[in-house]
Amino acid sequence: MDSVPSAIKDKPTFKFRQFIEQYGVYLTLVILLIISALITPNMFEKETLAVMFRQCAQLGIIAIGQTLVMLVAGLDLSVGGVIVMTSMVVAEVSNGRNEMIPVAILIALIIGMLIGLANGLLITKRKVPPLVATLVMLFLVQGVQQAFTRGVPSGFVPEALGLVNNSWGFLSIPLLLWLILNGLFLIILRRTSYGRRIYAVGSNPEAARLNGIPVNFIKISVYVLGSGLAVISGVILTGYVGYVDRFIATGLDLDSIAAAVVGGTSFFGGKGQLMGTIAGVLIIQILSTMVVLIGLDIETQFIIKGLVILAAVSLYSLAHKDR
To answer: How many whole angstroms from its chain centre is CA 70?
Structure first.
């Protein structure tokens, strides 16, 4: 007599919260693709796809770094300043000379990673909250830029740097680079001890420390990596624009956070997957492209993004309720 209730009890049941946690972002992406196909079918033309995927790469490379930082319960608002700094350094050092591009990029990379190091040290050694530390660093970087250029950017972007945005159909060098970096960091996070330590530090830093994990080193390293990735994105953006623009990174810092959050990365650390961030980048960029094609203003775009982030956070909270 007891076997029937037991069989019923053991029967697999559909768990809504678990489904949302694992597949919600991908379901959202599919629904958004269907809606965009109905509302803006011209978004799937080759030229539009080429532009959208290039923008996905520019945002996505930054979002990789943002995901790493958020996995250790951090946040990086200084990436926009790093991108603008990259543009200015590349133009100033090279001054339009193609042969100086490698040197200019190397110098920008060193400066960018030093900014990430400063962020990490402020957070781990001085115990400054990540939001405050990276915001302060953003203001410092912007102040140095203003003092150095007196508000008028100097130098010229080498013509050859524009080749980094070469494309074949909807495929482009930035897109291929983004895919390669995604593959690299997916392996790092899933297959290496360093990746496992990142999750351990984000989940419970004290337990990680007791298990011999160098918590401060892990935290500092992800900020250095995040800034380095921002430099790479800055080089791509500079080559695409072809001149120094102080507003070249406007919105990218918040969009990178949005992509990670929409993809399921927790603000509290230890939870998130890079595959989810990739889907989050696609969602953010599809929304942006749809808004442009429909002809809505930039304010509406911000409202839509805000609503999407709110929905993502709400679903995440629902999936983790009572856990």
So the answer is: 10
HSE-CB of 297 using CA atoms within 13 angstroms: 1
Identify the three-state secondary structure at position 72.
Answer: coil
> Which one-letter DSSP state was computed for residue 265?
-
Residues 249 and 61: beta-carbon distance below 8 Å:
no
Sign of torsion, CA 119 122 128 132? negative
- Identity of residue 317: S
Tokens of 107: 């110098």
Cβ partners under 8 Å of residue 86, min gap 6? 108, 112, 230, 231, 234, 235, 238
- 3-state SS, residue 205: helix
Domains of the chain, by residue range, sit at 44-249
Mean pLDDT, rounded, for 129-153: 90
Measure the CA–CA gap between 228 and 226, rounded to whole angstroms. Answer: 5
Helix/strand/coil for 213: coil
pLDDT tens, residue by residue, 254-300: 999 999 999 999 989 999 999 999 999 999 999 889 988 988 887 88
Cβ-in-10-Å burial (0-12, 13-18, 19+) of 210 comes to exposed
Task: Give Cα separations from 62 to 44, 223, 266 (angstroms).
Answer: 25, 12, 17
pTM > 0.85? yes
296-308 pLDDT tens trace: 887 887 887 778 7
